[in-house]
Amino acid sequence: MTRALVVYRSHSGVTRRYGEEIAEFLRRRHIAAQVASVGECDMATLSGVDYLLLGCWTSGLFVVRQHPDLPWMSFVREMPAVPTPAPAAPKVGLFTTYKVATGSQFYNMRAALEGKTAPPTLELKSRTGHLSPADEKALERFLAGV
Ligand SMILES: Cc1cc2nc3c(=O)[nH]c(=O)nc-3n(C[C@H](O)[C@H](O)[C@H](O)COP(=O)(O)O)c2cc1C
Asked: What is the pLDDT of residues 100-142, one digit of tens each?
C-alpha cells in the first residue's frame, strides 16, 4: 500500500483544512494518507512513507519577510533525516495558506528542510484552504513524478 503523511501547522484552521483536502485527494488515488498537526505528529510515522507533505501558514509582514512559524521550524528541527536518495526517500511536497503574498515562504521552508529530506518537488498555495483544479493537476504531476 502506498503511504502518505500530511503534516501541517495551522494557526486558525485554514492550513489544517488544506492539509485535509490534500489527504482526501490522495485517498481518492488509493494512497493511504494520514494527517497530523506538527504538535501531534509521532515522528515514528515518518518512517517508510512514500509521500511526505509538509504545510504551514504564511507568517510575515504580508508583502515581505514571509516565513514558517516557530512550531513548524521546531518540528523540522526535531524531525529525523528521512532516507535519501531514492528509492527509499519519500517524495516531498510543500503547502501553505496566505492572504496577500507567499513571498519567501517556500524558500524558507526549503532552507529549513535542507539535509533532512529530498528537495521538495511540489509547492501548493491557497488563500481559502480548498484544493483548486490547478492544485489537483499539480498533485497529479507530483504523484507521477513529472
Ligand atoms: C501574524 C500574522 C502574520 C501574517 N503574515 C502574512 C504574510 O506575511 N503574508 C500573507 O500573505 N499572509 C499573512 N498572514 C495571513 C495568514 O497566512 C493566512 O490567514 C493563513 O491562511 C492562516 O492560516 P491558518 O488558518 O492555518 O493559521 C498573516 C496572518 C497573521 C495572523
From this structure: 999 999 999 999 999 999 999 999 999 999 999 999 999 999 9
Q: Is the pTM of this model over 0.90?
A: yes
Distance from C-alpha of 17 to C-alpha of 140, rounded to nearest angstrom: 19
Strand order of the β-sheet with 32-37 is 32-37, 3-9, 51-56, 91-97, 122-126
Rounded CA-CA distance 145/133 in Å is 18
> Closest ligand 1 atom, CA of 126?
21
Q: How far is the CA of 88 from the centre of ligand 1 (A)?
A: 34
Q: Which domains does the chain have, with CATH numbers?
A: 3-144 (3.40.50.360)
CA distance 31 to 7: 15
By DSSP bridging, strand 91-97 and strand 3-9 are: unpaired
